[in-house]
Amino acid sequence: THMLNTLAQESALDTSFFALSWHELNRYELNSYHHRAVIDACAKKSEWTKALSCFCVMPQNSIQHNTIVYNATISACEKGGEWEKALQLFCDMSSGEMETTAYTYGAAISACEKGGSWKDALRLLSVMPQSSVETDRIIHNATISACEKGSQWEK
Description:
Elements: H1 2-9, H2 13-25, H3 32-44, H4 48-57, H5 67-79, H6 83-95, H7 102-115, H8 118-127, H9 137-149
Helix pairs in contact: 1-2, 1-3, 2-3, 3-4, 3-5, 4-5, 5-6, 5-7, 6-7, 7-8, 7-9, 8-9
C-alpha cells in the first residue's frame, strides 16, 4: 500500500498500474486501499477512463467498493470533465447501502458545476440534510458557481 500511495502522490500513473498488475499476477492480497491509490493517481492526471477501469475491476477480484473508493472515482470523473459519469456513480452509491459524505456530495456537485448542470447541483444540495450530511462553504460555493454558469443566479 505504501508503494502505491507514493506512486499516486507522484502522479506516476503508468507505474501505479504496473505495480497493481504485478501484485495481482503474483497473487498478493490486494484491497480497496491499493485500488484507491491508483484511482487517486488517475484523478491527478484527469484520466477518468483509467480510474473507472480500476474501479470496475475490483468486484471481479473480490474486492468490495467502499465510500473512499467511490469518492476517489467520482473525483476522477469530475476532474476529467465527466459530470454525468460522476453523477451516475453518486446515484449508484447513494441507492445502495454505501455511506455518502460531505466529500462525496462536494465532488458530485463540483462535477455538475463543471458540466453546467445547475439543476443537478441544486438537487444534490437540497437532499444533503435528508442524508444527515452537513454542507460547507466549498459545497455552497460550487452550487452557486453551477447556478452562475447556468445563468440561474437567482436560484
